[in-house]
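ugh ok so i messed up the first submission bc i forgot one of the chains. this is the corrected input, ALL of the components this time, i swear. 1974 residues overall. if the numbers dont match what u have on ur side tell me asap before i send this to the collaborators (the ones from the other lab, u know who)
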Amino acid sequence: MFDIIGFGEAQLRLSTAHFQRLEQATSFDATIGGAELNVMVTARRLGLKTSYVTRLPRNPLGRMVQNKAREQGVDTSNIIWSDSDRLGVYFLEFGALPRPSAIIYDRTNSAIARIQPGMLDWDSIFSEVRAFHITGITPALSQGAMAVSTEAMRRAKEKGLQVSFDLNYRAKLWTQEQAKAGLSPLMEYVDLLITTEEDTARVFGIEGKDWSEVAHQLAATFGFKMVAITLRENVTVWRNNWTAIVLKDNRIYQDRTYDVEVVDRVGSGDAFAGGFLYSYLSGNDVQVALRYGNAAAVLKHSCTSDLAWFTLEEVEKLIQSQGDLRISR
Amino acid sequence: MFDIIGFGEAQLRLSTAHFQRLEQATSFDATIGGAELNVMVTARRLGLKTSYVTRLPRNPLGRMVQNKAREQGVDTSNIIWSDSDRLGVYFLEFGALPRPSAIIYDRTNSAIARIQPGMLDWDSIFSEVRAFHITGITPALSQGAMAVSTEAMRRAKEKGLQVSFDLNYRAKLWTQEQAKAGLSPLMEYVDLLITTEEDTARVFGIEGKDWSEVAHQLAATFGFKMVAITLRENVTVWRNNWTAIVLKDNRIYQDRTYDVEVVDRVGSGDAFAGGFLYSYLSGNDVQVALRYGNAAAVLKHSCTSDLAWFTLEEVEKLIQSQGDLRISR
Amino acid sequence: MFDIIGFGEAQLRLSTAHFQRLEQATSFDATIGGAELNVMVTARRLGLKTSYVTRLPRNPLGRMVQNKAREQGVDTSNIIWSDSDRLGVYFLEFGALPRPSAIIYDRTNSAIARIQPGMLDWDSIFSEVRAFHITGITPALSQGAMAVSTEAMRRAKEKGLQVSFDLNYRAKLWTQEQAKAGLSPLMEYVDLLITTEEDTARVFGIEGKDWSEVAHQLAATFGFKMVAITLRENVTVWRNNWTAIVLKDNRIYQDRTYDVEVVDRVGSGDAFAGGFLYSYLSGNDVQVALRYGNAAAVLKHSCTSDLAWFTLEEVEKLIQSQGDLRISR
Amino acid sequence: MFDIIGFGEAQLRLSTAHFQRLEQATSFDATIGGAELNVMVTARRLGLKTSYVTRLPRNPLGRMVQNKAREQGVDTSNIIWSDSDRLGVYFLEFGALPRPSAIIYDRTNSAIARIQPGMLDWDSIFSEVRAFHITGITPALSQGAMAVSTEAMRRAKEKGLQVSFDLNYRAKLWTQEQAKAGLSPLMEYVDLLITTEEDTARVFGIEGKDWSEVAHQLAATFGFKMVAITLRENVTVWRNNWTAIVLKDNRIYQDRTYDVEVVDRVGSGDAFAGGFLYSYLSGNDVQVALRYGNAAAVLKHSCTSDLAWFTLEEVEKLIQSQGDLRISR
Amino acid sequence: MFDIIGFGEAQLRLSTAHFQRLEQATSFDATIGGAELNVMVTARRLGLKTSYVTRLPRNPLGRMVQNKAREQGVDTSNIIWSDSDRLGVYFLEFGALPRPSAIIYDRTNSAIARIQPGMLDWDSIFSEVRAFHITGITPALSQGAMAVSTEAMRRAKEKGLQVSFDLNYRAKLWTQEQAKAGLSPLMEYVDLLITTEEDTARVFGIEGKDWSEVAHQLAATFGFKMVAITLRENVTVWRNNWTAIVLKDNRIYQDRTYDVEVVDRVGSGDAFAGGFLYSYLSGNDVQVALRYGNAAAVLKHSCTSDLAWFTLEEVEKLIQSQGDLRISR
Amino acid sequence: MFDIIGFGEAQLRLSTAHFQRLEQATSFDATIGGAELNVMVTARRLGLKTSYVTRLPRNPLGRMVQNKAREQGVDTSNIIWSDSDRLGVYFLEFGALPRPSAIIYDRTNSAIARIQPGMLDWDSIFSEVRAFHITGITPALSQGAMAVSTEAMRRAKEKGLQVSFDLNYRAKLWTQEQAKAGLSPLMEYVDLLITTEEDTARVFGIEGKDWSEVAHQLAATFGFKMVAITLRENVTVWRNNWTAIVLKDNRIYQDRTYDVEVVDRVGSGDAFAGGFLYSYLSGNDVQVALRYGNAAAVLKHSCTSDLAWFTLEEVEKLIQSQGDLRISR
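and heres the new structure output, hopefully the right one now
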């Protein structure tokens, strides 16, 4: 019934406009984001049937999360509701060279962090589903979330779903040691590992002379079928370069590097995952899927909020483009 | 050094504009409010030297609370800082007949809720101070906050400060039974009890044939020197009537009833307390102080945010006014 | 699979803030609304499974309509897409006594107005559905829309769906004579007629000494099973009274009259229909359903945009309320 | 070439939104207003050819005044420019019962206040013009402005223009004694005096048992051909009653009293003048002109900014209306 | 009476702020723009007397177009009004590398598109005028607009006005073949052709080894007295290079290339035309006029909306500048 | 009691958003700024006890200045109040290459410009203070301000305070000749001169083959103990390079050059002064203080408003940074 299901935390994102610092804010723009939700949204916008699983408070803010997932066409029927807990919040301010953008998390004791094993019926959720996506954030939320993540990944693997895992190390949630101890046991369930430039070194201590070697080491260590490493160069805060590589069957796939003007980079890695998963699960080979992942990630940089406000047509136009920047009229 | 010190929780207030429901919000107006802070602000704007004590997270939101207190001239030198906790948040939406305005609290585990006895040095804080103000919200926040509230009230009483207490029952924090059990032991330290129409019945089960009788019963039960009861009539959501009575030395003081167009009623009771305390601590008698309290409360209804954005001159003009509504030019 | 399906036009609503006149606008608030969509949204929020059928342009504005329907949980799988047409727009400004609010329609040649018979497969759409809702706006849009409306109503009736019809006369779309000629033939398919105070007189020339008599005449003339007449008194622009009556089986049902502060009255009649249909299709009797319809209509007045941003819990609380306007905290 | 010319000061109006107090402002809405400009705008929107004369600084703010006059169709070819002076500013905050709206003027040393006799060539300006309008604000600005006002009024009278004068006493510009001394000598040039309820008493010390008597006294004292007195009742800040009377040829003309919801009352008196002058100069009798004046004043209350953002059609519809408050669609 | 008259379509421009995609818009900034209007505004701001001719709906949006033209000092007395048609709208979103900005037109059946020959009295309009400006958009709007454009250009030529024509090919209005067939017959009336880099190739199939050769071919093919080609390099979306060349009397004129940070590039070509025409019609030679055109175009990039919110002084300062970017204070 | 005291003018800053030109503004963002206030704010945020002295009007705008100083922790107890004067205003618009940002001052006759000798009791103000800061703006405001500045600097010197002076030449206040004549006599009281690249040449006519030579000449001419010269390169409007040098005891200190994306450069020089003074007065040597000054100046470019919305921790992180631009999470 669904191509892919994601499980994790969605938060109320409160960001300031016009580069205001958080401390001087007199208003906040309010949107919804969360790593796994963002992936489901991108994949859905491009064409997959996706469902998002989380635990939400039964109040206007919890409903807002459900609304915004539905608005994008993401199924929310597996979401469970809490009568007492809160929605996690994150505060975001945008920077300018040499000050990077910054985030304050206020996510402790959110409804999803207080999830307990047994609350979600994974057998039912995974019936008629082809793939499962989760990130390293979800197990980091709490012991309960770790337990439910493990439950979900094991069950997904047993049922033959493709399991993708974005490492997404969050230093504000746990130490590198805790992350290594917590995440290593989960790696046996993972088919596709997605990671950013820095996170493998920080979590698994895996480094190499180049990213290709890192990918090979990751695959060798954990037995992943595929490893994707996204590579960002922060030329300035408002100007980045972006590309990614994928390792599969001992072969490294590469794509061109994009020059990017940055409107809002939050969620770019998730857009990569969504674009790659869309294309790969649609039957394309890794080389093609990598192009979709990169184009989706790149377009995300020009969209405000965590979400992928673009279309399949735009992704494909970018893949084929020669850099035409005229206004279309 | 200070006329009065307040102790309690200040929160980030996130409200929607244009009567938007919280569920449909795309942005929030951000201000700071908190019952005891609001009282200190009103009293300071009218003329007292006031200080505000709380515990804040050492991050931009915590600094925002300190900033906004200082902006109003309220001393913040006694505030203590936490490196790990959060700032409480409340979400506010404005209603229209027949739907009242509504608040969602997200205050659990705030820095102030996680305060512990001994963190604040009340002897030092209360040196050279004449009065102490606290509300029934602070002890309701947590066991630690209850303990510190008790510590503070007892010490204030011992040092001969005038202790004022606004009952402020919050059903979202504890049950009526819990409130009664928790607050009753504190009443022995209270000189001036301030309460709204409903709260004495809900917390102490004290009711009477009229508000005068209720005030007498309260004084008789707990031995308060003064009891103030604020009386609001919700004609509609946008139109209220407001007055208050005060009992002192077995005598009931009354004031005129004001007809009020409501811009933002949050903090009106605190403005009453601030206006009354300003006048009373400035040496006026109860009848005069009651007039200042009512005028301050009434003006608060026309100010956005929890705070009393008006001046002593405006309060005194209203007290003497014959209802001139011409634009001053 | 669905309790009820609605068919009609949804528009981009561009309204000014702060009572600005349209002529002086420097920005517009953008939301989505449409009579049948509004009904589906209310019914869905209260508990029915609803689906909305329309024809949209394949561009960001068309997608916005689908998004906003999905956001509310309304199914959009039956929507059809046009590669060349436009989305209808309406411009709205809010008034103040003695100037009423006003609307400019810019809806000619919208994708839905250019629909043609055969574009929608009603047999498929109506499989596993219990009810169908349409208003007098849809057939007024164009000859094609009239033809498809007729097609839909006839097929709904044949398949035994309950057909509800909100008369909704729009003088800017057609004359009273055209409306009478166009709508009269459709009345044979209607089970429940919903109409405002003025519209029966304007469209069918039916008047009476009171609304009860009008309802009886309507039922007698067209053979409706039920007739609902909503009754609004414009005390001022910002203050209205609201109630409604329903006729069924020769009996008139009445409910209390609500005193309403008006934030945004657009869509109130649709909220009535949605509330009534929710309750009636959930198995309640007419008297109960009338209460749900009125409470939903009344709450709509306090919500910005055309849509019913409230919950079943709020509707039921209002029905049982004694007018408590305290802030819930 | 013009029906009427106005002369005076236009200011940058900086007002807060959402009832924010000036002291708490983080942004201001910026518009342009000025008594004589407002009158020229209303008269122009209804149908007269109008021109506005002032002195402006040659900077973006000065150009903004010219732009906004031109936007409304008011001629600006007689405006003169200063290379060194400033534009006057006024700050406006909106009140709510029992606190009235308030204005801070920051108009000292504006370009128009620094005007000197001879800077404007009244002979040229008054060629082919039928009427001249000025208010008691212009001569109050400075000695230079008083001299130029006198120059203009005398010359207008000599050339046979109808001279209208709105008393508009501004306590923040001069005392009642100064106003009396300054304005009395100008009255000999005035054909039509327009005044509010309070101003004749404050400036000329003329009071009576009713407004009719006051009008008669004014005419008797100064020899005005016509006297118009506008009558406002401040029921609350957001709800006013409005009407006016006119005395001509010893006869009092009256009109109905309007019940008004107040969005922005600044400029209502100017709209009255503009509506009355439009109708009277178009050849209607006083009774008709009074109706246009009142309807224009009343509609102004529902328009944000000082200006009359309505049409002749709307004025005439209101005059003929029976109070229909349905949304026109 | 006028130096130059422009004829074409002005639209309501609805753009999103903060780089929001159109699909996610919750509000739109509203301004007015249109190729020929933009040219008249620039020329007027720099010093010419200009008039703008179009056909508008008699509603608030049509009045908004007239207002905004008048605000800039552009005469609107030749505008004609429709009681039934609509104003064209365009939706604009701003991009970031590698996604260009994008426009959705919603202009079909606008009042100007429904114009018919005879509605405008060109003999009267062209009395006492020196020049006429039109673009390739106007004849593309409809058959009626093509007929009236032809009518106007022929009559202008006959009366000896200088006719300037900006090719402005719009792929969303017609195909390249349609444009060639439609525009070629009009070229005989054109004195000055203005075109962008791409449009001559797309419409006339004229290409060359460099822009100089293209200009020569255009002049040779159609007999233009002058040809101006504007040359933009999209370094990124937010950074462009700009210059232009002009051919006259077989000689190519060039100017420096400007490095431009892009705030809003819509209307830059029109600003070039306005700046060039201002200078040329003021009696300057082509080399000087080219400098004014380029400086105006370049300054336009830093102004929001389609319009040229700058002054002659700023244009001349830029022409003479050495790149001083200090804040003037 | 204070580490440093600043004396000067604070203004209401009215800036447009989204790069709007001032002439097209429909709203202004309102903040408070002033050279000496900005320095006190930066120094306070980093850790000094600072006090700000000025003269303000007793109205909401004057209170706003006091509020915003207090909000930052700056003492305001020495401020004096005027019952009749105004607050200075400056209007700011942001530019884009090749158009620089621009400011309109409207500061004539402000309360501080109308200060007179004797109004401030410098003996009392300077009791228990270590340093005094003033800029070349304050004496330029008026004769009275010049007299009070001289009074203050002489007294500060006499009392042994460290006197720092930022040259800050403002061409809109006085000519270069006037500045030279006015400022030269004050230089004898100055310990630390801070100047921008251009100002020494413009005011003192001091130029050299490099900045080091200029610093030496300044020290030689006036006997300053220290000279700081800030060096900005305007690569574009949105991209600057920044560094500074300091001369002390015949030695030149240098620091690295920062590459800066510019959000709002107003107040950067003041942030340099604040950062340098903080560090130097905290006991660090010149080399260290220079680093703090530069880092503070650089961070200021990324903060909206004149003020230094950053922390000591951020300054120190930047000083030690290797340019990590990842989002901290």
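quick check: The mean pLDDT of chain D is 96. that seems consistent at least. The two ends of chain D are 40 Å apart (CA to CA).
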